[in-house]
Design brief:
Blueprint: H1 2-7, H2 22-29, E1 33-38, H3 41-57, E2 62-67, H4 77-85, H5 96-106
Parallel strand pairs: 1-2
Length: about 110
């Protein structure tokens, strides 16, 4: 992940791992918003339930959901890995550093 962030020049992005409740972690960071990405109706159902629970636990923290664009609606990481493993073209769907890592991993 760090390689993608660096290669895309996202200097204002960091990845932090944590354990426990997301609402507690957001509070520790001084955050006010949880941003979620939604790709499918299944994502919506799960995120809706989680968002309602987060609101119950921390009403001062908002949850914002962003919808994917149509071009990436049916793309999943497992599908991309399978296509790369079988030698298919994924360059227009992933950052170059990820394509390189997949090619090295699968020898394609």
């Amino acid at each position: 992940m760090a390689a993608v962030i660096a290669s895309e020049g996202m200097d204002n992005v960091r990845v932090v791992t944590y354990t426990g409740l997301t609402t507690n972690f957001v509070r520790e960071l001084g955050g006010q918003v949880i941003i979620k990405g939604l790709r499918s109706p299944n994502d919506f159902d799960a995120e809706f339930q989680q968002g309602l629970m987060n609101h119950k636990l921390a009403p001062e923290i908002e949850t914002v959901c962003l919808f994917t664009n149509l071009e990436q609606l049916f793309i999943s990481s497992s599908l991309l890995k399978e296509v790369a493993q079988l030698g298919g073209q994924v360059e227009d769907l992933l950052p170059p550093v990820v394509v390189k890592a997949l090619r090295e991993k699968y020898g394609a």
